[in-house]
Every structure is written in C-alpha cells, then in structure tokens.
Design brief:
With 176 residues, the chain is of the alpha+beta class. A hairpin with a 4-residue loop joins strand 1 and strand 2. The termini are far apart. InterPro entries: UBA-like_sf. This is DUF4342 domain-containing protein. It comes from Desulfosporosinus meridiei (strain ATCC BAA-275 / DSM 13257 / KCTC 12902 / NCIMB 13706 / S10). Keywords: Membrane, Transmembrane, Transmembrane helix.
Length: 176
C-alpha cells in the first residue's frame, strides 16, 4: 500500500505531480527506488549523469561506478605514460652523463677526467665537500671544463673560465 509520505518523497525527488508519483508507486508495490526506475523508463524523469547511484533487485544503475572506473582506467594510462616519459628522460640524461666528461686541468695538462654523471652525483650527495674542493682548486691554479659530444661549446665552460680568471686575479691581488 502506498503512503502519502512515499508519494511526497517521490514528488520531491523526481519533481513530478502527486498523480504521477502515486501511479509509479502503485505500479512498483510501494518501492521508492523501483518507482524512480519506472519513471526513468517512461521518460518522465531523466537518469542522473555523472555520479548517480541506484540499485534494485530488478535493475541496477551504477553510473557512479562506471564513471569512476572509466576515469581510473584513463588516469592509469596517463600515469604509466608519464612514468615512461620520466624513465626515458632519465635514461637519456644518464647516457649523456656517461658520454660527456668533466675535466680538471693544470695549465693545458688534464689532471683528471670523469663522467659528468659522477660530478652530478657528487653535487647531489656530497655538495658540502665537492663545491669547496672545486673553489679551493681554482686558487691552486686548476681549471675545469666539460668535454664531450654534447658539451664542447657550452656556455658553462665560458663561465668556469671566467671563474678561474677571477680566482687568478684575486690571488695576484693578495700576493702584492
């Protein structure tokens, strides 16, 4: 038996008349959820889009689940694609770091040469030791440069030469 409370609730939820609400509830033996589904099938109300969620024994409507499953699948593809791009970038940087070298020179003679990746790791994990050693080396007449297929004509080499010249000039001004 359909109650006035059920009719009012369905009217408020579906924005339909009392007569349509009573007819839907009577057709579904007073089951409010079934009445909503019944009205959807008749085209009197529209199914919720996006995040609706109803369920019944006869029909299940899980737009919320389908909507989120689609987005999770889509997000997963983007996540994996992003990881592949990051991985590709890291491999490219490691290759470049291994094919190019950081050289320590005294005059024109190369005193030490090691892959740029080693310098990068030293700067990341032991910068408090690496940077002072490089600066102290400048005052002992050492020069630094990057060498390799990707770094021969690098503006960083010009900056390092300028720093070495500045250290040499400072050293000369202190000696006077």
């Amino acid at each position: 038996m359909t109650t006035l409370e059920q009719v009012e609730k369905l009217c408020a939820m579906a924005k339909i008349s009392y007569e349509e609400a009573k007819a839907a509830l009577d057709a579904t033996n007073g089951d409010l959820l079934e009445a909503i589904i019944y009205l959807e099938k008749q085209g009197k109300i529209t199914a919720p889009t996006g995040e609706g969620f109803y369920s019944s024994e006869k029909k299940q409507y899980h737009d919320y689940d389908a909507h989120h499953a689609h987005h999770h699948c889509h997000d997963g593809k983007h996540f994996i694609s992003g990881l592949k791009k990051i991985g590709g970038f890291c491999l490219k940087m490691i290759r470049k770091g291994n094919t190019n070298s950081f050289e320590v020179l005294k005059g024109e003679e190369i005193k030490a040469s090691f892959p740029v990746i080693v310098l990068a790791l030293l700067l990341v994990f032991a910068f408090w030791v690496t940077i002072p050693l490089i600066v102290i080396g400048l005052f002992f007449g050492l020069r630094y440069r990057f060498n390799g297929p990707d770094l021969r004509h690098n503006p960083v080499n010009d900056a390092m030469n300028s720093a070495a010249d500045a250290a040499e000039n400072l050293k000369k001004s202190i000696e006077i």
